[in-house]
Protein 1
Amino acid sequence: MATARISTITCPSCGHQKAEEIPLDACVYFYECEGCGQLLKPLAGDCCVFCSYGSIGCPYKNL
Ligand SMILES: [Zn+2]
């Protein structure tokens, strides 16, 4: 059974945290922080913002 994949994204700029569900069909490359409005992008070598800033990475990284 599929389980919800929730990753808490921490903004590197202001520290705002928000739990977001990781979509299973696409990588999230851009994420706008609700705290400061900064547009977050993955760090070099990461495929999505969850891998760079999330409490858990996206499901594709560990395949
Ligand atoms: Zn922020």
Note: The two ends are 18 Å apart (CA to CA).
Protein 2
Amino acid sequence: MTAGFPLREVLASEYDSRGYLIIPDYLDPAALEIARAEATALCRGQRGAIEGARPAGEHEDDADVLRHYLCIHFPHKISARLLEAARRPAAVAALTAVIGPNIKMMQSMLFIKSEGKPGQAWHQDEAHIPTRDRSLAGIWIALDNATVENGCLWVIPGSHRPGVLYPVRDQHDDRFDCTQEAYSFPYRDEDAIPVELPAGAAVLFHGYLLHRSLPNTGRHGMRRALVNHYMSAESVLPWFPPGEGQPMGLLDHRDIVLIAGEDPYAYKGTADLMRPHLRADRDGGCAR
Ligand SMILES: O=C(O)CCC(=O)C(=O)O
């Protein structure tokens, strides 16, 4: 447990009732600088291939290089430093308090929401990454001060509690990127609250929690965030890259990293399935 971190029971009960927890000082100033530098190195192609990425000009300004991106999926597959950021003591302390002693990670995303870039429509992460025991959780780490103006996360407190996955559909709202939206849920936009965070702080949120983000207005600069997804290691993960279907019941995605405790399925080994790639955006017609 890190200094100043409340008791595990308090964390668990807050998470249970609201569906999210703030982790102040998730990254100390040195770790924050490392994560920011790593974001730039990734965007410059210095950590290896990212599907869909364009080569950065040698003389191009860092900020201009970053502005070409919206989101890099699975950066932890090529960046040891971002993987390190995902397994910090603060992550282990919070995740083991709210999920259990055995934790695995299966996804990371690096959002680079520069001025004018869109947000992401209402969704629940478990609708996209299905666990067997509703244990999915995300840790969203602010790499810049995240504000309403530059497109911080918004959550609907308690919306995870019914344990229902709401339907999803394509949406064509220019405020949002190409990902689908959840609809027909019993909450209004007015029920949502913004999660404004100083750089280095993080929010841990439940996989059933409805959340979204709005575009960056450009008035508070760039909004970078690193998001990592975790779950209980006891649950198998019926999640496969498109086209790699297997009979239900056998599905267990094994491109995972053990973050805490033991993996009861270690006998299966791990797999290298996911490759870093860019999120499709509207400029590209939302195609992948
Ligand atoms: O950072 C954002 O703009 C959206 C993040 C998000 O919705 C997620 O991590 O599931």
Note: The chain has one domain: 8-47+63-284.
